[in-house]
Each structure stands twice: as structure tokens, then as C-alpha cells.
Design brief:
This protein is an all-alpha fold. The chain contains eleven helices and no strands.
């Protein structure tokens, strides 16, 4: 139960702070000095850093079904525990999106259809208007590299005190590069919460942000399970 509560809080925080930066302080927000793409990227990355040290000792701070899946594939997690993590992560993301909506809708100029909730997507009308192929390739590759950083930074022999910082900075870099492509998911739960609240195109495109991160995570997990990226602790 402790682990599920920790994962719920961690994923809730990621969605509220990360998507919140896009919705409440991003470009196009009326009446604020927009933080821009760099600010949004740092919000996602620093949210992970904070939660890594806040809940990491309890659950490992996965706050991402792809991370849990990668850990499972790598042989570091049992299937039953992974499912419990997934439940907590999707629930935390949904509640985080709901709370963000309650806050954002408190401003008269806010409109859910126009301003959204930081939902992921691709194609005409979405940020850089990248194609489905570009979105798919980016999400698979970015999640793979994110999981390489996570599984590498948390393996035996790695400097544990620096793991949270390394993982958070990796997520920030991924956002700096990829926000214009998909808004950056690399996390099915992060995509799920806002999509459920927004509906429409966000729901119809949600499949990519579930499948692609899981594929990328599986590839990274296999490389650690087979020892290709495991450190030699001899």
C-alpha cells in the first residue's frame, strides 16, 4: 500500500507540475510572462527530481507505467507489483489532470477546448504539426533512452545519491527536444490523465502514447536483462 500511495502522489505531482507549467504559464497563456518550452521542460524534469528524493525510498519513484514495464522486462520487478504500480500511476495522473482543470478553469479566459490540459498529440493543428511516423519514432526512441538512463542510474554500483538528478535532467532534455513533436509523453499515465479530461482527438491519439513508450521501455529492459548494459561489478 505504501508503494501504491507513493506512486499515486508522484504521478499526480508530475502531471500537475509538468502539464500545469504548459497550461498555466506556457506560451499563449493570457496575462502571464510565458515560461516557454525551456520552462515547461524544466518543470517536468524538476518534478521528477523532487519526487525521486521524496518518494524514491518508498517505491523507487517510477511514476510511469513504461518505467515499471522496463523494470519488469529487466527482471527487477514482479508482474503483480507492476500491475499495482500501473493502477496507482494511472489514477494519480487522472486526479492530477482533474485538479489542474479545477485550477485552470478558475480563470475567466480559460477554455478547455482552446487551452487544453497539456495533452499529447501530433498532426495538423498540434504544435509543430509533425507526422504520425515522426511521433511514433520519437516516442519509442526517447523512451528507450530515458529507460537506459533510469535502469543504468539505478543499477548496482551506480552512485545512488545522483540517480534522481540524472533521471530528472534526462527527462528535461527529452522535453527540450521533443515538445514540438508530440508534447512529449514517454509515459502512458502522463498522456492518459489529460486525454481523458480533454477528450476528442486526444483520446483518439492516446493509443500511440501507450504503445510507443512500452515498446521503447521493453527494448531498454531487454538490454539490461541480457547484460548488454549491466555494469561489471567485479
Amino acid at each position: 500500500m505504501k508503494k501504491m500511495v507513493a506512486e499515486f502522489i508522484g504521478t499526480f505531482t508530475l502531471v500537475l507540475f509538468g502539464c500545469g507549467a504548459a497550461v498555466l504559464a506556457g506560451a499563449g497563456t493570457v496575462g502571464v510572462d510565458a515560461v516557454g518550452q525551456l520552462g515547461i521542460s524544466l518543470a517536468f524534469g524538476l518534478a521528477i527530481v523532487a519526487m525521486a528524493y521524496g518518494i524514491g525510498p518508498v517505491s523507487g519513484c517510477h511514476v510511469n507505467p513504461a518505467v515499471s514495464f522496463g523494470a519488469f522486462i529487466a527482471g527487477r520487478m514482479e508482474a503483480g507489483e507492476m500491475i499495482q504500480y500501473w493502477i496507482a500511476q494511472f489514477a494519480g495522473a487522472l486526479v492530477g489532470a482533474a485538479v489542474l482543470y479545477l485550477i485552470a478553469s478558475g480563470k475567466a479566459s480559460y477554455d478547455l477546448g482552446t487551452n487544453g490540459l497539456g495533452a499529447n498529440g501530433w498532426g495538423p493543428g498540434y504544435l509543430g504539426e509533425y507526422t504520425l511516423q515522426a511521433a511514433l519514432v520519437f516516442e519509442v526512441v526517447a523512451t528507450f533512452l530515458f529507460l537506459v538512463a533510469i535502469l543504468g542510474a539505478t543499477q548496482a554500483g551506480a552512485p545512488a545519491a545522483m540517480a534522481g538528478l540524472a533521471i530528472g535532467l534526462t527527462l528535461a532534455v527529452i522535453h527540450i527536444i521533443g515538445i514540438q513533436v508530440t508534447g512529449v509523453s514517454v509515459n502512458p499515465a502522463r498522456s492518459f490523465g489529460p486525454a481523458i479530461m480533454v477528450g476528442g482527438t486526444a483520446i483518439s491519439q492516446l493509443w500511440l502514447f501507450i504503445i510507443a513508450p512500452l515498446v521503447g521501455a521493453a527494448l531498454a529492459g531487454i538490454m539490461f536483462r541480457t547484460g548488454l548494459l549491466e555494469a561489471d561489478n567485479t
